[in-house]
């Protein structure tokens, strides 16, 4: 039964309640900007379109079921709010952008709040819009589907100034995918069982903090982007990396915590071990005050990743602390502050927290073992120990590798 209550004779905004799909479709067509529609508990099969700036909300037990095809809700207007709904069983055609909630071009200021979304395609999908808020939702994909065939939990393309906050996202492709966007804010979300938690592509001026990714392929992937501020996030149990900087510039990676990045099938000769942070062809970034611990590799740098500041980090109990594939000698300190390296036994005669001697976490011999892993059994032999000592005393060739001239003595410093 359809009922209406006028809130204000000035605004003519009304609140309606509905109990079946036909009533809902009729009201969506007839409602005006500012109206609210409340779905009573029950199943609402079908696909629904919103052409006015309304609020669509549900009582506990209100479920929209798209019956396995298309998008459940398509938004064509600005200032639409979707909240307190359960949406399920929408389509899985990623080319057609099948979604629980599909936000069309120029439908600005949409709000998607406190919903539960379960389906095979995208959870929330938006292109060419601005000021979208997606908060406090639970978004679940199809765990039976191959990971790269799933939709993203939240897919944003050319969306300006979105806010993504407090969501739980699992069994999707990427938790939050941002392409060609600007000024996104992604905070306090939880990601698990997916490719990447947050995935930036060709994006600018973004910020992410307070997020947590667990049991993912990668935590936070910054690809071909710039001016990303990634700080105070956590990653545990990643298979490929905690943080990836791939062709990304002028960004800040600070105060993040990455633990147990491990690839069970990883091989030294393939370079596919689990990495706390992987820097590939990225320049002019600051990597500071992070904790990289108990991973296959603490930091892996390759292919033009030399032009970055690396300082104040803690590299703790990684199987390999540093893997640098390059021919330069890189200084990893800034303003007389280096990094903390577990396993480095240095002296601090003046008790300023800085070791008296510089530290070389890897050198030419390390690179030799990476290139020829079959010789790894010699790594701890007396002969190699002698060669390392000779190399440290006499440079016969142009030096290369990593040097930290001001290594931190205490694990408590800088964090």
Written account of the structure:
- The chain is mainly beta and 415 residues long.
- 7% of the residues lie in helices and 42% in strands.
- It has three helices and 42 strands.
- The protein has a 14-stranded mixed beta sheet, with helices on one face. Strands 4-7-10-13-16-19-22-25-28-31-34-37-40 form a 13-stranded parallel beta sheet, with no helix packed on it. Strands 5-8-11-14-17-20-23-26-29-32-35-38 form a twelve-stranded parallel beta sheet.
- It starts with a strand and ends in an 11-residue tail after the last strand.
Q: What is the strand and helix layout of this fold?
A:
Layout: E1 3-6, E2 14-18, H1 21-30, E3 36-39, E4 42-45, E5 48-50, E6 55-58, E7 62-65, E8 73-75, E9 81-83, E10 86-88, E11 99-103, E12 111-113, E13 116-118, E14 122-130, E15 133-135, E16 138-140, E17 154-160, E18 163-165, E19 168-170, E20 174-179, E21 185-187, E22 190-192, E23 196-201, E24 204-209, E25 212-214, E26 218-223, E27 226-231, E28 234-236, E29 241-246, E30 252-254, E31 257-259, E32 275-280, E33 286-288, E34 291-293, E35 297-302, E36 309-311, E37 314-316, E38 320-325, E39 329-331, E40 340-341, E41 359-362, H2 364-371, H3 382-393, E42 401-404
Parallel strand pairs: 2-3, 3-6, 4-7, 5-8, 6-9, 7-10, 8-11, 9-12, 10-13, 11-14, 12-15, 13-16, 14-17, 15-18, 16-19, 17-20, 18-21, 19-22, 20-23, 21-24, 22-25, 23-26, 24-27, 25-28, 26-29, 27-30, 28-31, 29-32, 30-33, 31-34, 32-35, 33-36, 34-37, 35-38, 37-40, 39-42
Antiparallel strand pairs: 1-2, 41-42
């Amino acid at each position: 039964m359809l009922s209406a209550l006028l809130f204000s004779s000035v605004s003519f905004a009304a609140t309606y309640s509905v109990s079946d799909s036909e009533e809902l479709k009729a009201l969506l067509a007839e409602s005006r900007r500012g109206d609210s529609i409340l779905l009573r508990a029950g199943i609402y099969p079908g696909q629904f379109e919103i052409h006015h700036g309304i609020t669509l909300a549900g009582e506990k037990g209100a479920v929209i079921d798209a019956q396995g095809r298309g998008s459940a809700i398509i938004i064509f207007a600005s200032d639409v709010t979707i909240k307190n709904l359960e949406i399920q069983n929408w389509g899985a055609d990623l080319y057609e952008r099948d979604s629980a909630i599909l936000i069309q071009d120029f439908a600005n200021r949409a709000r998607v709040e406190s919903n539960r979304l379960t389906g095979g395609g995208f959870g929330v999908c938006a292109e060419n819009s601005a000021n979208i808020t997606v908060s406090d939702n639970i978004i679940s994909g199809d765990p039976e589907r191959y990971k790269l065939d799933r939709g993203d939990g939240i897919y944003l393309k050319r969306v300006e100034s979105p806010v993504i906050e407090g969501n739980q996202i699992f069994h999707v492709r990427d938790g939050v995918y941002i392409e060609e966007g600007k000024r996104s804010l992604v905070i306090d979300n939880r990601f698990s069982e997916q490719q990447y938690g947050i995935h930036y592509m060709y994006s600018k001026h973004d910020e992410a903090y307070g997020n947590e990714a667990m049991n993912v392929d990668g935590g936070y992937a910054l690809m071909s982007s710039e001016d990303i501020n990634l700080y105070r996030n956590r990653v545990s149990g990643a298979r490929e990396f905690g943080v990836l900087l791939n062709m990304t510039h002028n960004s800040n990676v600070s105060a993040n915590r990455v633990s147990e990045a491990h690839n069970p099938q990883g091989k030294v000769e393939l370079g596919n071990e689990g990495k706390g942070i992987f820097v590939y062809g990225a320049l002019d970034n600051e990597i500071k005050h992070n904790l990289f611990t108990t991973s296959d590799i603490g930091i892996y740098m390759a292919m033009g990743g030399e032009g970055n500041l690396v300082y104040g980090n803690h590299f703790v109990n990684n199987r390999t602390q540093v893997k640098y594939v390059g021919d330069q000698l890189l200084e990893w300190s800034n303003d007389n502050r280096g990094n903390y390296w577990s396993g480095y036994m240095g002296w601090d005669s003046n008790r300023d927290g800085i070791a008296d001697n510089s530290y070389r976490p890897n050198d030419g011999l390390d690179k030799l073992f990476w290139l020829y892993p079959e010789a790894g059994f010699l790594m701890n032999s007396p002969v190699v120990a002698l060669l390392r000592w000779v190399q440290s005393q006499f440079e016969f060739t142009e030096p290369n590798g990593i040097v930290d001239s001001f290594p931190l003595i205490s694990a408590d410093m800088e964090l």
